[in-house]
Predict the 3D structure of the following.
Amino acid sequence: MSASGPGLTVGEMLRKHGVSRRGFIKYCTATASALALPPWMGAAMAEQLRNAPRPSVVYLSFQECTGCFEAFTRSFSPTIEHLMFDIISLDYDDTLMAASGTAAESALASVMKEHFGRYVLIVDGSIPTGASGAYCTSGGRSAEVILREAAKGAAVILAVGTCSAFGGIPFADPNPTGAWPVSAIVGDRPIINVSGCPPIPEVITGTLLQYVTTGSLPDLDENRRPRAFYGNSIHDRCYRRPFYDEGKFAKTFDDEGARNGWCLYELGCKGPTTYNACATVKWNGGTSFPIESGHGCIGCSEPGFWDKGSFYTAQAAADFTKSGETRPLEVLEFAGATLTVGAVLGAGSAGVGRLRQHRSELDEVAQNDKGTP
Amino acid sequence: MILDQADSLAPVQRVATPEQPVVTPEQQVAGAMRGFSHEIGAMSAFRLESCIHCGMCAEACHYYIATEDPQYTPIWKVEPFKQAYKREAGAFAPLFRLFGWKRAVTADQLAKWQHLLFDSCNLCGRCSLICPMGIDVTELIEQARRAMFDAGLAPKELYRKAQHQLLTGQPEASDEPYREQLIGIGKRFEVEMPLDAVGVDVMLCVPRTDIEHYPEAVAALARVMSHLGVSFTFRSDGLVAENYGHYAGSQAWQRAISLRLIEQAIACNAKTLLVPECGHAYAVLRWEAADLYGKPLPFKVQAATEYLAAALQAGRLKLGAADVGTATFQDPCQLVRKGGVTEAPRQLMKAMGIEVHEMADNGMFSFCCGGGGGVVDIESAKPLRYRTMETKLREISATGAKTLMTSCSDCRHTFDDAERHFDSDRSASSLLEIVARNLVDEVSAP
Amino acid sequence: MTLDLLGFARGPALKAALAIFCAGVVWRIAAFALLRIRRDLNRPRTSMLKYMSMGVLAIGTRSWPHPQFVKRTGAGEALGYSYHLGLFAILLLFGPHIEFLGSLFGFTWPGLPSGVITGISAVTLTLFLGVLYRRVTSRVIRMLSNFDDYFSWFVTMLVMVTGMATTAHLGARYETLLALHILSVDLLLVWFPFGKLMHAFYIFPSRAINSAILARKGAPS
């Protein structure tokens, strides 16, 4: 872990590691284009970065599985991404740091004090509030308390992973730990949600890079996710889309359609309502993504994805139950119940109709009996 | 309400019938609602529910075709009925009433609809053929007319005739009772007119229009029956074929009038009640009488043309060539669209070697003469009727046929009336009369 | 779990709408089908087998006017049927719709490519506008028309328009458009039992029963 604060600039750092200026500009241009920024931004980014003091970054992990952090550290190209560690000053991270116990706590405290108002706070994992916060504590302090304190001095908070962005899997029904996303706990700091379970590594680093170079928030969608990576649905960028449009769907995971790479809509793909860069940036340095590997998108970058319905039932299927799935028996019971209610009401109406009619018929018969026309 | 023997022989010309009761608007609405309520059943409700407001029925109705006036759209004629149903009897009727989604029928509405239901509808049945939902619109109109009767809004001409027929057996007073006139026709045309016989095969009734205007047709009927060698009779207490109770819209009176014929047919043990040339009389007896009687009729009801055509097919009737030139045939609506008697008259005409030039709208699509449903009796309906008849008359002219033939005395009467009005020479001949003139004996030549 | 608009539209709202639809349709039909049925005591002209089969035949034959009437009514009929065919094609032959209906009925069927459905939708939309034009300009039809006619048209139109906007991503986020589309379907389902859309259930039995009654008399239909 490098020391924080002034010292070598990013450019000096890169020079030290043998990265040519040309190589660095190429990287920045590629990142800028991935962020859908105009071409001149690449050069500007490079210039900025070269001269920038390495910003302080604090990485806090709460109720998480560490998948997001693993993704962060597994950005694929070792040369450039590895350098990101040197571009930023990762001043505190539970998982990586050597210190522990009170030494670790005092390190955090000193970083927050020294760089108050300027550090980037990265959070992964949801924040449990149940049992007075006992589900996730560090040094006797609950996640919520730690977050609130850390947030006070953060210039920006990156909520990395669906758990910190939207509550994720712990947040799913019945949410036994009382888990909440970062945005539910912190209301007064800028938050960028980099959702995904986990997010694509390049998306995490690209978002961080943009903030670090521009000092401002990227263009965000309604869910506070960078539009550069989350602006299109998987469906709208999926290479299997022509099959969807032609009506060619795989019906099982090993039928002819599946083998021919047909659309996985009927097998539960949530591509149409999932926003992420999986279909374009892909995973493992552009190797593949779930749909390409033959499994439908499970919508892991969306709020409430776990509760939103079966991963293996088509999205357009009727959603009757809390769990977001409907079984044939349920439909039959529903139909039976409603049709019976209707029949009873209808018989009632007909009965009332007949009664009223009978009364008026009786009037007429009575009239006829009197012999009047 | 059956008259006993003594009453039927009494002179009928000066019976004082009570005036049609005057009813207040409130009574009209109450009566109409009572009537509508009585007419609601599964079938009528289903028909009222099924209408999708497509307006196609207008295109089948000769009143709309002639005037292009939307108010003559057939289903529009039953709009108050539909309104009352939705408000009073449909599934969500309480909601309709509570939120005022359908207004209550008003007396003004009923007054306006009297014209639509009685003056501008012959109950011809064309609208029922065109509806894409299959609705029998004609049935609904018949039902609505019955409710109008209950409202006291039956046209006065129809009401008077119906009441007169109920009380005396004749729709109108005549100088001589029909019974006597019948006997006179027999003498005049030298035809046997058996009266009040029992144990016969066939009981005959007679359109009073024929008795009054076309006596030769009455004679022709008897002549043909004699020729066939069938035992038949007329019955003094059941002479008149038409049922003015039906025209006026009173089911009670229709029932009483039909019962007269039914009881006479039972009294003479007839196997068949034969209805000569009258469309409505046939429809009422063949397709409505048993329901009013309360059980299936113990005899067959047949129209003259179908009876004769059957005899023709069986070889019991032989006909010679008729000298009428080219002919076109006016299909009585109630025979062709209510009873399926379309081929019978054509078989008879073919057997007589008559060259038939069909009208553009013939057979099941034939336009009504304009007089059906009692319209020919309604004074206020005349201007509209003449206007509507122009369509029919144009079609007849277009055939280029020399003779217009029909087998309904009311059609004949309507065409004769038009002849006077339009100052044309288009009158209708009776098929029965022409058959009677061309009977061929097995043994001797004509 | 808190529901977003889409979750609400396809969850509780759809369930409630389907419940109202099922109960309402049966209620409406039972309310008149269980009314008095008049026995016909008159001697039929044809056998029961004959007149019942004539009734069933009429379901097909009444689909198009008799040749005698076609000149006056053919164009209007054709317009009406065409948009119905279009609506059925869109409803029954579009992938996501097949999935939805399949989840209710337990089986699916092959559909048409989405592009074809888009084309059909465009044509159907145009025809549907044409039908409204006809309703307000024809004197007969305008006179007959009431709130039910216009609202049923509107509710159906809304479903079509929101559906097309959803596939075209036109005007808002996809999820919002999809939620609006499903909400419009919910509205249609709720309205269905109360208006003229019920003719979908009436049409076949009405043609069959009315024609059978006429065929019993030997009368044409």
Summary: Strands of chain B lie at 202-204, 232-234, 272-275, 300-303, 327-330, 403-406, 428-430. Residues 1-14 of chain B have pLDDT under 50 and may be disordered. Chain B has three domains: 25-153, 173-313, 327-437. Residues 38 and 147 of chain B are 8 Å apart (CA to CA).
